[in-house]
Hints:
The relative contact order is 0.16. This protein has a single domain, classed as 4-Layer Sandwich (Metallo-beta-lactamase, Chain A), CATH 3.60.15.10. The protein has helices at 22-34, 50-53, 68-78, 84-93, 98-107, 182-189; strands spanning 5-7, 13-16, 40-44, 63-67, 121-123, 126-129, 133-137, 147-151, 156-160, 195-198. With 209 residues, the chain is an alpha/beta fold. The longest helix is centred in the N-terminal third of the chain and has 13 residues, at 22-34. α6 (182-189) links the parallel β9 (156-160) and β10 (195-198). The chain has 6 helices and 10 strands. α4 (84-93) packs antiparallel against α5. This is Beta-lactamase domain-containing protein.
Amino acid sequence: MPCVAVVADDAGSTVIDAGQSPGHARLVQSAMAGAGLPAARRLVYTHHHWDHTWGACAWEVEEIVGHQTGAELLAAESRRPWSHEYMEREMAADPRLGPSFRARARAMPTWDDFVVRPPTRTFTDGLTLPGGVEVRHVGGGHAPDSTVVAVPDPGVMLLGDCFYPPPFHLREPGPAGEEIDLPLITALVAEGFDWYVDSHSPPWRPPSP
């Protein structure tokens, strides 16, 4: 499962990424309640990929924040007839979709009440949310709308998947298509945050100078 982060605020928590399914979102909500955190007030998408956005329909929030490019892509995704049968047809037409679509099928035992939710508040370069949470578009090869979220106090940057290679079905043939975006992650680490959190690894600290 991808990382879901929570920035707690007395006025209501900001949740970074929605989870990969409604079931995943409900696990996060249960953990928030168990920890005594305020209920979610908003979602922030680091990018439009399914494992970061498909849980959104299980959240009751005032707004969903995301990059304008991602909003357009998710609007298109919301019009697709998602079901196991639909994904089987798509994989038969394009076998390269297999890794992504099989993972989606495992995450979605039921499609009851499922909808893809595009952002309700968009930006192009960046914006600052209540509590000093900074949202910034960085782009890159993984997704055109890749966004990082900086929380200056306590010194954490949430990276999403921004420096990862593109999804399997979009990669160029050969080893170069599997390489991370080293210039991008190097530049972000140079900003000097105490902790960095990408979406599929434990939190990590940059090496000491």
